[in-house]
Design brief:
heterodimer; A: alpha+beta; Rossmann fold; 6-stranded mixed beta sheet; 5-stranded antiparallel beta sheet; 9 helices; 25% helix; 34% strand; B: 297 residues; mainly alpha; MetI-like fold; two-stranded antiparallel sheet; 2 strands
Amino acid sequence: MATVELQHVTKRFGDVLAVNDLNLKIKDQEFLVFVGPSGCGKTTALRMVAGLEQQSGGNIYIGDRLVNDVAPKDRDIAMVFQNYALYPHMNVEQNLAFGLKLRHVGKAEIKRRIDGAAQILALGHLLKRRPRELSGGQRQRVAVGRAIVREPAAFLMDEPLSNLDAKLRIQTRAEIQKLHQRIRTTTIYVTHDQVEAMTMGERIAVMHDGILQQLDTPEALYERPANLFVAGFIGSPAMNFFKGKIVGTPDAPLVDVGLFSVAVPSPQRAAASRALGSEVVYGVRPEHMFVRDGSSPEGVTVEAKVEVVEYLGYEEQVYCSLDSTSFNVRLPAQMRTHVGGRIPLTIPKDRGHVFDAKTEQALAA
Amino acid sequence: MASTDLVVGDFAIEHAPGHRMRRFFSSAAFWLTIGAFLLFAVFPVYWMFVTTFKQINDLYSLDENPLIFNLAPTLEHVQFLWDQTRYPTWLVNTVEIGVFTVIITLLVSIPAAYALARSRFPGSGTLGIGIFLTYLIPPTLLFLPLSQIVVGLGLINTRWSLVLVYPTFTIPFCTWLLMGFFRGVPREMTEAARVDGCSRLGALFRVVLPVSLPGILTVVIFAFTLTMQEYVYALTFVSEQTEKTVTLGVSADLIRGDVFAWSSLMAGALIISVPVAIAYNFFLDTFVKGITGGAVK
């Protein structure tokens, strides 16, 4: 068990800056998720922690130890790979024991740890099988088991669920969470799937173009995205954005997007007062808009034209347009929205987010 | 039109025989082609076999069917080869040269192929191609400079000259072949081993080599056969009876002027090719995989 700290870590591949001045500290026993689109530098960052990639600059600490020049085998970490990377010439038991034998762990201790991992992961009946005789889900569990038996300072997981089918992925997602609650080993988990990040991470590091965009809890990322990228990346379907301008008075600033004006949400009001007249982007999540009825919260209401309706059973996703601007909303399924019709949509006054159009950063609270 | 499977009723039944006929012809063409190739490939081996065991009178008789035994088969030519020539010594020499060459080849080719397959260093691609190009220079050109080296080292007229020279063509070939096998081992597997506790070299020995074992066995067999069938270097560097290889020995000692000891020649060739043919048979699939490996991933 240990903390993992990255200080000003940079990685260059030729002219490409894959990771740019990454600073973060993973707490002891924490489950931290790196998330971002492909090519954002999240896997490179993980591989630098593992020692499989040498950083171009900066320092990496595991516990109190500076590991910049420490070989992967001496970093006391265990890694789970996307394609599991099991050793095909060994059976499950030998796969699990491999790392322990290399570390000269005693026979009795190896057996104890393998039995423990086999019990946690339900691998007992598979110990004598070769990897090719296992299903994808079983292989995935062996890969996790190989990490557990090592009892390392930290687990590094590189998209370990992306080779599983959708149903198994959700099930295994829960199993990995349960496992972490049980053994509390510091874990860094890389994924491109924001749902996986939101459901699993205690904290999430959102990366884009090699730069850490925001490091926070899932709630904070959802409620207070630091910039346009995070706002658009977290949440599905993505947040709707409208270009506009800050108008009104310092006491009651408004965002005027042309089609409608809406009050600046209260946490950002002070910042908006200082920025009267500046160009901004107003964002509101599809699930935060309502069809107006008697009980609707206070806000601004617009008449939107329904373009496409995707019925999902429990709700429907409705693609609307307002003049030439299109956006989408999530509505209860019983609304029975009709394509081509018009619906009165209320944007509640405090659910929006205001971003500076130039810097793309959220207006500071 | 007749081949439409979706058609139902009389129409389809009416056309079914035509369909069957066409299938018969296409499969007949397939087997005829295969048969022709098979005949082409197997006939020399069969000829070698019957010639080995035919009595001389049978072999030279022009009146009988030359493809079958018209007189009882005999072992006398094998006996002659074994007792009256140095064939057993040549056989031992050939195996000995093969074994040493294979060992040298593996010692050089495995690290070279692994480095070329896995590490990215300046010029690694060019180096890989360069190694293969050396294989393309024919021995008939190379034997002149190589003979200078062999003489200089005092190895002329010994089988050790061949142990020294044969790796010049087995190493490029086997390095190239092994690169294919090593590229087929997922990179993550070696990375997992390195995280698990291996050094880079440890990962090669504990994971990559065991996983590539079929490939390495294939390389062993091919390097061995390459040395076994070599003729030009053996002819130019070795003239001592007791140092000769099979290819050199049989052709030098069983052909006297224009007199060919056909049956013993064939026996000499048959004895050495049968084990190899069997070995090839087992490893041909992995051999093909080694050549195409990495290309189709």
